[in-house]
Amino acid sequence: MSDFLELAVARRSIRGFTGKDVPQEDLLKLLKAARSAPSGGNCQPWRFYVIRDKTVQAEIARASGGNAPFLLTAPVLIVVCADTARSESRYGKRGETLYCIQDTAAAIQNILLCAKDLGLGTCWCGAFDEDAVSKVLDLPKSLRPVAVIPVGVPANEPPVSADRRPLEEIVTYIGESGILSHDEEPHRKIEHVNMGGAQFRDVNLYGSTFNDADMRNVEISDVNLSDGRIHSCNLTNVTICDCKLDGMTINGKDVTGFMEN
Ligand SMILES: Cc1cc2nc3c(=O)[nH]c(=O)nc-3n(C[C@H](O)[C@H](O)[C@H](O)COP(=O)(O)O)c2cc1C
């Protein structure tokens, strides 16, 4: 598994922040990541408003219907705007209504992933009154606000969850798939949690990592743990039975060796 897949899977929307500030150098990295996104004809039809002003944040929170108090508590907001005129001048209606939105969406996702990589939390917020946000920021007519992104240090990490639709449901192969089995997909990361007494039954945890977890009295049965890693965990009284374990390691040791001990 590439580290990138791990990062992409682990990114979740964060809606609660500690009071800790976001360093300027990290903010700069987010903006550089945003600017690196692909864009139709390399038009780069975007503008990023970086907001560190509680009055303006409150106005944006209000324009979002008051349902997003985290827009006020985040130390920074980035409002990503599409420059519709820039794309239209090159591609006409398609540029104005489609390309510039796709381009900004790519930039937004780059910000989200870069933030995750830096240990920062974000949330892509699109539910706001466009006119109200445009007014707050005094946007020229050609700029359309596409997303408000709060950025901050996560107050807590949402648990890794398996809430994505199965590949079988969303992928159509034309020609041979070249994929042996979709059920090898999960690469979950389970870290810094107390799982005492938990039971895992009949689940696919292929390639997953358990790190710094209290796994006392955990029962794992009929689970695909192949290519997984268990690291720095309390394994007192753990039982593992009827599991797929090929390529799995515990504290860097091949799992077969561990079982014999
Ligand atoms: C176009 C778009 C608009 C969204 N708008 C909001 C929003 O207004 N408020 C919010 O809290 N989350 C918003 N989200 C975040 C989604 O709720 C979230 O990405 C989704 O539930 C999946 O959860 P995850 O990001 O933790 O993987 C938006 C996401 C996208 C892509």
Task: Itemize the secondary structure elements and their pairings.
Layout: H1 3-10, H2 24-35, E1 46-51, H3 54-63, H4 70-73, E2 76-83, H5 84-117, E3 121-122, H6 130-137, E4 143-152, H7 167-170, E5 189-191, E6 199-201, E7 209-211, E8 219-221, E9 229-231, E10 239-241, E11 249-250, E12 253-254, H8 255-260
Parallel strand pairs: 5-7, 6-8, 7-9, 8-10, 9-11
Antiparallel strand pairs: 1-2, 2-4, 3-4, 11-12
The structure holds flavin mononucleotide.
Flavin mononucleotide binds at residues 12-13, 15, 68, 123-127.
Could you characterize what this model shows?
The chain is an alpha/beta fold. The protein has 2 domains: 150 residues, NADH Oxidase; 76 residues, no CATH class. The protein is 33% helix and 18% strand. It has a 5-stranded mixed β-sheet with strand order 5-7-9-11-12. A 4-stranded antiparallel β-sheet has the order 1-2-4-3. A 3-stranded parallel β-sheet has the order 6-8-10, with no helix packed on it. A hairpin with a 2-residue loop joins strand 11 and strand 12. Helix 2 crosses helix 5. The longest helix has 34 residues. The radius of gyration is 22 Å and the shape is globular. It binds flavin mononucleotide. The site of flavin mononucleotide has 9 residues, from loops.
